[in-house]
Design goal:
By secondary structure, the protein is α/β, with parallel strands linked by helices. Among the domains are: 171 residues, Orthogonal Bundle (Arc Repressor Mutant, subunit A), CATH 1.10.10; 86 residues, Serine Threonine Protein Phosphatase 5, Tetratricopeptide repeat (Alpha Horseshoe), CATH 1.25.40; 149 residues, Rossmann fold (3-Layer(aba) Sandwich); 81 residues, no CATH class; 80 residues, Tetratricopeptide repeat domain (Serine Threonine Protein Phosphatase 5, Tetratricopeptide repeat, Alpha Horseshoe); 96 residues, Serine Threonine Protein Phosphatase 5, Tetratricopeptide repeat, CATH 1.25.40. 64% of the residues lie in helices and 6% in strands. It is built from 48 helices and 16 strands. One of its GO terms (molecular function) is ADP binding. Belongs to the AfsR/DnrI/RedD regulatory family.
Length: 990
Amino acid sequence: MTSAQLQFSLLGPLDVRVAGRPLAIGGTKPRMLLATLLLHANRVVTTDLLIEVLWPQQPPRSAAANLRTYVSSLRTGPGQVGARIRAQRSGYAIDVEPGELDMLAFEDLVLRARQDRADGRPHEALDQMQQALALWRGSPLEDLPGSRVWDGRLETLAETRLTVAEELLALRVRLGQHSTAITELRGLLVEHPFQEGLWRQLMLALHRSGRQAEALDAYTEVRRRLVSELGIEPSVELRRIHAAILAGESPDVQDWETTTAPPRVGPPQQLPADTPDFTGRAEDVRALVAVLSVADRPLTDPPAIAVVVGPPGVGKSTLAVHTAHALRGDFPDGQLYLDLAGTSENPQDPADLLAEVLRTLGVSGAALPDSVHERAALFRSLLAERRMLVLLDDAASLAQVRPLLPASCCAVLITSRRRITELPGAHQVELDVLPAEDALRLLGRIATPERVNQEPESAMAILRSCGHLPLAIRIAGARLAGRRGWSLRVLEERLSDESQRLTELRVGDLEVRASFDLSVRLLPEAPARAFRLLGLLGPQSVPAWVVDTLLGREGSAAALDTLVDANLVRLVGTDPIGQPRYRLHDLVRCYAQEAADADPEAERQAALARLLGAWLATAEAVGARLPANIFSLIPTRATRHPLPPATLARLVAAPVAWFDAECDTLLAAVRLAAETGMDELAWGLAVALVPYFDLGSHYDAWTRSHLIALEAVRAAGNLRGEAALLRGLAQVHLYRDAYDESERCFARSYALFQEVGDARGEAIAICGLGAVQKFRDRHAAALVHFQQALAMFLAAGDLAGQAYAWQAIGRGHLDAGNLTEARKSLTEALRLSQLVGDQHREGYVLTQLGRLHRITGDPERAMSCLRHALAVFDGFGDSHCAAYALHTLGGLHAALGDREGGAIELERSLAIFRRLGDRHGEASAAQALGELHRDEGRIALAEGHLHHALALWHGLRATDRAAATLAHLARLGGDTADTVTDRVRPSTSV
């Protein structure tokens, strides 16, 4: 070792010295942090790995911040330690110079000793080994709690120490230092009583020193131990040495040395053939080459390790083999390939794999050690002075992989269907399906580009059915290549049926279903059941709590983690409220659906009913946090399954964000309920979505959900469900100005509510009929409906319904010019809205009060009401109602002389109405803008807006509004209304 000022020691208790004096590093966690950095000296250790060391069970939420604190304490502490610690984007590293760390010094001395021995300098080798072993002061880091992150490195160090001790004693025997060798061997055998290599050397040393009886006694002792405690006989080599001593012959020590000295064999070249039509994955290949290229690194560096994981059929082995071939030039000492058969029923035993690779490296017969431990140590010794690439294909677990890892500067490339994230320092590559462009190129390379180019639409449909999964694409391409008479359309149609898709994706010995079988049959019972049930839910992503509900128990996170680790379920990201989202690949989902068919139907239905009941309970609870919806209708016969309170509290905290995240999943839930005959749940889920649909003007989704549920309730004869859904559809028709269809739906809804005796439903439908009349400018008829509904709400004591009815009546009076009645009705509506805490209704009433105050000549109060209303709607994210407030506010600003501000607000409202498809609002805003520009003398702009409004009024059959607009146009050009009518009629026939 050098006389450097700073010295780090790991081979015993953690010790740091400056100029020979110990440096105090306080606190267990800072010491564990420093130890982890030193074990990976001169390399970046990721933040995740350091957190796992410091908090192996459950990291606190503040783990990352706490880690930074510990790093800071090391960097600002006494001595020179802090100057050596570097912060990197992904973690931290400590820089160590040669001779400053006993672990690196030990490895360097061992390397030089073995080189001296190989070059025929045994005395120099003996001296180097003695120096190396003298660095050990006990067990590595024995004063600190253990960490599984350290295990691999510390086990390698301990194994190397034992191997070096054996090699040193073999040299002593070879050099005739028998007495010293015997003493040291007996000491080592106390610690390692079953190490046959040590017993061999002891027998040889005793025999060489003329102590044949003791040599024979040593054999008797080791045989007794092995038989009585392990139930095995001594190895062939031990028996051979025993027989030689009995016969008075001299066993040759060289036989033993061949198990530790590198045999002189040619470099193995075991890689399977590269795939000729390898396509895509350029970034993954570049990343792997960068990680695994070790040509310029010292031989003492730890191995470069990369793990390629992904679902079945995604092309892990293909990528690994292709990358290994690209790296062949960096590994002149050879490339090893081992198939670990991790997805088979009987994965390969590490002992058998080591025997295979050791035979490749020239170790055979009696020279092949018996135990996994000895074989692994010999494997590491043989690779210690070589640059080799080791490809471990289809690994089952870290336990299977760990004995196959070299300790020196080689490269290891591992493929696995299961995540092996606990391997320290390994670079992880997680494969996904191919992007569309690469998938198309792969299909073309197999089926010929000409055929693909001739039918591009069918080609893309085939790729969608294959889910862009490379194995499926390869099978589809092979089927086309083997059937030249087929058009791509034929295969497209055969793959379109999900129930037959996996059957179609089979050719020769390639089969998608069989590939999935390998992964699924290894699953424990709970994850396997969760997998089958998840397959029934459709292609949408789902949050984690869904698995608990499907299985009917809490705490199913382990089952989900198992599916994620097996790459059967993908983590696809985190939604806006912080929930991780999971989904199955489309072909995996087809497989899961097939597997679920074998489960009892009653169990499947019960699981789905639990989940749909949970979605309903949650949607209702979250919807209750949205602006009050007085027209909510609740299915009384649907069984709900509430989520645990803590989970539900987290979801309802951000209601709009929750609906944004779950909208597609809830729509799929409506369809699932309808398809499985759960009509009450189907219509309940559809109407539970209405507050969100209404707030965000999601009219397409609103219509789609109601039509799906409507078919189910009609098939089941569920009249109340049909009435509720027709009311919802009528509302959408009203928003889209389809007044005839809206009136028909409201009328049928009213009749059905009447038939089932639901008085509240009747009142709600009547309100809808009144709204249709209002938008048709039939104010008297509208008032009759709203007053009838008010009477029913009063009789039922429904305050929220009364608030709506009073507001609608007030607006009707306002439109008719009955200002006194309008004021009384709107004031009562405002009082009731505030009483029931319906802020959204309050905002709507304030909009009408703003109109009233403007008409009555109180602009300040009008402005206050409208601004308050706009703030309410903006706070709820209700752009539709905000557009009406902006429309009124714009008119008020213009009337007060702020024409520019008024025009801006009217333009904003016009844009919103146009985006939402509200032609009535759009016509009103366009007309207001036309009148405003007319008053400014901007005739061309005024005519453009007024013509736009006129076309819309004609389309809405609003004859009175159209006549008023015609009059405005006539005044602009000095024409009569009839002349304008003739001039604009061709452009307004909507």
